[in-house]
Known about the structure:
Blueprint: H1 3-15, E1 23-28, E2 34-38, E3 43-47, H2 54-66, E4 74-78, E5 83-87, H3 94-100
Antiparallel strand pairs: 1-2, 2-3, 3-5, 4-5
Amino acid sequence: MTASRAIKRHQFLETHSLEPTQLAFLASDMSLRRYYRLSSARRVLMDAPFPENPKQFISIARYLQECGLRAPSILEHCLDNGFVLLEDFGDHTFTAILKNAPEKEA
């Protein structure tokens, strides 16, 4: 990511009264998206620069919630710059929980 991207990321956080210095890289995926955890709050910042379209992510998250499924809440966003502030579910993944879960009898 470029320095100008980092500046935009920091401006987005400051706009929402969050401290950019508390930002720690969390993960990336096969796209251009990168995820950062805010250590001072239970928040994750999705950084999805153009040509990524975080609007699709937001729509799917809201649809899942409407269906009664648990998806991260969309707390803030700036679609023009590709930023989405999400609820942080923490480090526990379904895969890890299922792997370590004791077998239950049916």
